[in-house]
Structures are given as structure tokens and as C-alpha cells.
Design brief:
The complex is a heterodimer. By secondary structure, chain A is α+β, with helices and mostly antiparallel strands. Chain A folds into two domains: about 15-45; about 75-185, Alpha-Beta Plaits. Chain A has helices at about 15, 20-45, 90-95, 135, 165, 175-185, and strands spanning about 75, 100-105, 115-125, 145, 160, 165-170. In chain A, the strands form two sheets. In chain A, strands 4-1-6 form a three-stranded mixed beta sheet. The longest helix of chain A is centred in the first third of the chain and has 27 residues, at about 20-45. Chain A is elongated. By secondary structure, chain B is an all-alpha fold. Helix content of chain B is about 70%, strand content about 0%. Chain B has 13 helices and two strands. Chain B has helices at about 1-40, 60-70, 80-95, 125-145, 150-180, 185-190, 200, 205-215, 230, 240-265, 280-285, 290-320, 330-355; strands at about 105-110, 110-115. A two-stranded antiparallel sheet of chain B has the order 1-2. The chains are: A alpha+beta, B mainly alpha. The complex binds iron/sulfur cluster (2 copies). The site of one iron/sulfur cluster (SF4) has 13 residues of chain A, from helix 3.
Chain lengths: ~190, ~350
């Protein structure tokens, strides 16, 4: 059965004849071609820094990712070297990929000391889907998505990061912390 | 006798070097780089030798190495013989057409007439079309022999598209033949010494239709329904790998050069420079003596010819990277309902005008 789609396009005779419109398109693309062809020259001669091309030579050139970017999750490390994490296990539960493994440790009731901390905190990046649920679930502002996405490896086993590898000084995470506070409005809980 | 043989061999060597040795590989690079420039990108530039990338020119070498070292794969149930022979069937006609394509006029070197065409056939133009349409067998057999539905669809589309557009192509040519009253390509070229007798002015409609039909013959975008990536994986050469795949690509690029050369000869004054006759050019180089001046003019003419060819290759590339693909029914409609009547009308009008002028 023939089926006709009425696309509500009314073309003038000029457009219908197709050739002028083709020429218009060709003019546009070839203008680009020549602009870039001669725009390249000063760049290669070294007299100009920008090359009016958006392509990034990736490993050599890098761009700053936006703050909302979700790279690998990392653990915040307080100024005294301890993780901010209290090993509550909420992120472990929130993780849809089940890639977080936590074994908690706690002290015997001494005052002015950390009460709980993770003895073991593993994230398997080979399994992680970078969803950010762990960050959202954490009540202690202890786990954050960083902007690091260069975690490809030849060995799958090496992608299981332990606590020591995950820790990042909290000072380096300030921007993301600000962002998550705005995002999840944690002071409203 | 020996001199003739040597001259012919030199011409064959020259054409072979230019098409297979120069144009075919360089066009793979041009295609990438030109599309990149047109789309504000950088293009392939990672292949390097000792830290030099040479604007990505080394990708040609990398490509060749890749093509030759890849596994040559023949699918289960494919006809081995036909599967192997079809890339050759596609490539050979593409190169063969250059036998009758002149790349310069006639020059007197050492009291000897040198005609810059390998074989000056009386039916030169027909030879081009006869041989070019032989390539269709290569494409059709390629799809048919590889035991794959996509390939078969692709080759069926190739066959129908080729038939449709060959009609237009042949009919467009008739207009040119009527104007220049010869089928020898060198004579058609020589007849266009006067700028206003270029085929483009005498057959403007014929030029547009011929270009459209020949791009369709070459199965490049916007007429690439036979290999449409988004519909048929890769069409008739889905099941090809290694150098056989490379041969299909080479055939496509060499056909591009052929189209550019034929268009130049038929419609854009072949090797002539506008407003500059061969006699004037010869008189400029008088101080070099008879042979010397002829030789200088010959070099200039070859350069001019290939400059025009390069321009038309560029133009085809621009078209390829500008226009979207036609739908299959649109291709057929364009071929049979628009181009065919127009080309018939073109013949009629040409005939009437010629009759009135006589
Ligand atoms: S980002 Fe998602 S998948 Fe990865 S560890 Fe956090 S919750 Fe699990
Ligand atoms: S939710 Fe936060 S505090 Fe709780 S275990 Fe995970 S990282 Fe530690």
C-alpha cells in the first residue's frame, strides 16, 4: 500500500528546479573549504596560535571538563589524612552496579577520635557505570565524582582501586563539593 | 617503428604513473583532508615517520600496508572464483579507459608527430563508455558471489542505477558529437581552441546532465544507493577485505579521475588555455627552436589539462561532501523522468540550432 507523508513543504519553482539550491550548498561548503585552507596556513607557519578548528588533539591537548562531568568516583581525604567516609554503606547499597566493597573499622569509644572509618574500600572501575548514585547517597560528603576519565587499562584486575588509590585531598574537590551541595541541597535533609 | 613503440610505451607509462601511481593514492588523502576542511575538522594526521606527519600524507603508506597485510577473507558459501575476480573486473576497466583519453594535443618533436593519446581510436568516445560499463559486471558479480543479502541488494541497485544513467550519459554525449562532428577525443579537444567554442558554452545543459550521470555511474554520494552505509552496510563490497577491498576503492578513485578527464575534454576545452591559442603559445617559445618550443608548449598543455582534471576532482569531492544521499526511488525518478527527457530535448534543440545555423 502506498503511503504518502504530507510534510507541509511548499517549494517555489526556483527551489524545485534543484540546481540553484545545489549551487548554494556547494558555495557554502567550498567557502568553508577555502577559509579553512588558508586559515590553516598561519597556524602551521607558527604566526598564529588559534586555528579556528574545534577539534582537539586529544592526548596532547586537553580541555577542562565542566564541573558536572562524572568521571571516576573518588574518596575525599580530610586534612589529617583520614577518609571522610564513615563506612555507613549507603553508597554500597545505592550502587546499581554493585562495584563498591566496604569493610568498616571502628574504635573502642575513645574521645576526640574518628569513630568509624572504612578498613577496606574498593571500587571496581571495570564494573562502575559512572552514574553518580554513590555521590548522591553519601551523607558525609565523602565520595565524589572526579573529572578523571583516563582509567583504561590492559589488565582488568588493575581496575579494582583500593582505598589508598581512591583517596583525594578534600581541597582538590572543593568545586565539586560546592556543585553537589547545590545539586542535592544536602542541608535540607 | 621502434620510435613509435617507445613513444607509445612512454605514454602508457606516464598515464599509468599518473592515475594508479599518483591520483589513486593521493585521492584517499585528499578525500579525508578535504572533507575535514569543509567540516571545520583537522583530518587524518596521526601516521608519522620519525616524528613527521607531513599533513597526514603518510596515511597513504599506512593504508597500503594495512590493505596488503589484512586477512583476505572469503565468506562461507561464496563463489571463490567470482569473488576473487570481481575486484579485478571493476578495476581494470577504470584504468583501461585512459587508453583513449588525450592529455595534450599534437606536437612536432624532432620532425615526428607526437599525439598525446595512447591510442587514437576512431570511436574513442564509444570505447570509453563501452569499457566503463564493463565495470558494472565487476560490481554486480561482487555482490552476487559473496553470499550476503546486503551485497546482493547493493549489486542489484548498482545494476539498475548503471542502466538508468548510462542511457542519459549516452544521449548527452550525442549533443556533443553533433556539435563537434567527431567521435575522436583528441579531435573534440582540438576543436575547442576558441574559448567560446568550449563544450560548456555550446552544451550547458549537456554538461550538467553529463556530470550528474557520471557521478551516478561512479556510485558516489549523492548517488551512492548501491553502497549506502546506513542501509546496506557497505553494499556490494560488504564481504571484501584486504587488497580486494582496496581495489574497489582504487577503481572508484580512478573512475573519478576518468570522469574529470572526460568532462574536461568534452566540455572544458581539454588542454587549451582560454583566449590563448596554440600558435600564440608557440610564438612565445620561438627562441627555443622548433622542437624546443613544441616541447615547452606540450608541457604547458599537459599541466593545464591536469590542472583542469584536478579542479573537477575537487568539484566532485565538494559535491560528495555537500549533498545528502538520494532515496532509491528518487534516483530512479531523476534518471528516467527528468534526465532522460531533458537529454532527448537537448538533442532536439541542438539539432534545430545546428540546422538553422547551416
Ligand atoms: S558511580 Fe554508580 S556505579 Fe560507580 S561506584 Fe558510584 S554508584 Fe556505583
Ligand atoms: S555513603 Fe559515604 S560515608 Fe557512607 S560508606 Fe559510602 S562513602 Fe562512606
Amino acid at each position: 500500500m502506498a503511503y504518502y507523508v504530507n510534510r507541509n513543504i511548499s517549494m517555489t519553482w526556483w527551489e524545485r528546479s534543484y540546481i540553484p539550491e545545489i549551487l548554494k550548498g556547494l558555495w557554502l561548503t567550498s567557502r568553508r573549504f577555502f577559509r579553512n585552507l588558508f586559515g590553516f596556513l598561519p597556524f602551521f607557519l607558527g604566526t598564529k596560535k588559534d586555528r579556528r578548528i574545534f577539534t582537539v588533539y586529544y592526548p596532547e591537548e586537553q580541555v577542562q571538563y565542566p564541573i558536572a562531568y562524572r568521571g571516576r568516583p573518588v574518596l575525599a581525604q580530610n586534612e589529617d589524612g583520614q577518609p571522610a567516609c564513615v563506612a555507613c554503606g549507603l553508597c554500597e547499597i545505592a550502587c546499581p552496579a554493585y562495584c563498591i566493597h566496604i569493610e568498616p573499622g571502628e574504635n573502642s569509644g575513645k574521645q576526640n577520635q574518628y569513630e568509624r572509618w572504612p578498613d577496606v574500600f574498593n571500587i571496581d572501575y571495570a564494573v562502575c557505570i559512572f552514574c553518580g548514585n554513590c555521590e548522591e547517597a553519601c551523607p558525609e560528603e565523602a565520595i565524589f565524582m572526579s573529572d578523571d576519565c583516563e582509567i583504561s587499562m590492559l589488565d582488568r584486575k588493575k581496575m579494582l582501586y583500593t582505598k589508598e588509590q581512591l583517596l583525594v585531598p578534600v581541597a582538590d574537590l572543593q568545586k565539586r563539593i560546592e556543585f553537589t551541595r547545590n545539586m542535592y541541597a544536602k542541608w535540607n535533609y | 617503428m621502434w620510435v613509435d613503440l617507445i613513444i607509445t610505451l612512454v605514454k602508457i607509462l606516464f598515464i599509468f604513473t599518473v592515475t594508479v601511481g599518483f591520483f589513486a593514492p593521493i585521492l584517499t588523502w585528499v578525500e579525508r583532508k578535504q572533507s575535514a576542511l569543509m567540516q571545520d575538522r583537522i583530518g587524518a594526521n596521526r601516521a608519522e615517520i620519525m616524528g613527521f606527519t607531513a599533513l597526514g600524507l603518510f596515511h597513504i603508506i599506512a593504508d597500503a600496508v594495512k590493505m596488503f597485510t589484512k586477512e583476505d577473507f572469503i565468506p562461507d558459501g561464496a563463489n571463490k572464483f567470482l569473488h576473487t575476480i570481481s575486484p579485478i573486473l571493476a578495476l581494470v576497466p577504470a584504468i583501461l579507459t585512459f587508453a583513449v583519453v588525450p592529455f595534450g594535443g599534437q606536437y612536432t618533436l624532432f620532425d615526428k608527430e607526437v599525439n598525446l593519446v595512447i591510442s587514437d581510436l576512431d570511436v574513442g568516445l564509444l570505447f570509453v563508455f563501452a569499457i566503463a560499463s564493463l565495470a558494472t559486471y565487476g560490481y554486480v558479480i561482487a555482490g552476487w558471489s559473496s553470499n550476503n543479502n546486503w551485497s546482493l541488494l547493493g549489486s542489484m541497485r548498482t545494476a539498475s542505477q548503471m542502466i538508468s544513467y548510462e542511457v542519459t550519459m549516452g544521449l548527452t554525449i550525442i549533443g556533443v558529437l553533433m556539435v563537434y562532428e567527431t567521435m575522436k577525443l583528441p579531435e573534440i579537444g582540438a576543436a575547442q581552441e576558441d574559448f567560446f567554442r568550449w563544450g560548456f558554452f555550446l552544451q550547458p545543459l549537456g554538461f550538467i546532465m553529463f556530470l550528474a550521470a557520471s557521478i551516478a555511474e561512479n556510485k558516489r554520494i549523492p548517488f551512492d544507493a548501491p553502497e549506502a552505509e546506513s542501509e546496506l552496510v557497505a553494499g556490494y563490497f560488504t564481504e571484501y577485505s584486504g587488497i580486494k577491498f582496496g581495489m574497489f576503492f582504487m577503481a572508484e578513485f580512478i573512475e573519478m579521475v576518468t570522469i574529470a578527464a572526460i568532462v574536461t575534454i568534452l566540455f572544458f576545452g581539454a588542454w587549451h588555455i582560454p583566449f590563448l591559442t596554440t600558435a600564440t603559445l608557440l610564438s612565445w617559445f620561438d627562441f627555443l627552436g622548433a622542437t624546443g618550443s613544441n616541447f615547452a608548449v606540450m608541457l604547458i598543455h599537459i599541466a593545464v589539462f591536469f590542472a583542469k582534471v584536478v579542479f573537477f576532482i575537487w568539484f566532485q569531492m565538494v559535491i560528495r561532501w555537500t549533498l545528502p544521499r538520494f532515496r532509491y526511488d528518487q534516483i530512479m525518478k531523476l534518471g528516467w523522468k527528468i534526465l532522460l527527457p531533458l537529454s532527448l530535448a537537448n538533442i532536439l534543440v541542438t539539432a534545430i540550432v545546428i540546422m538553422i545555423l547551416n
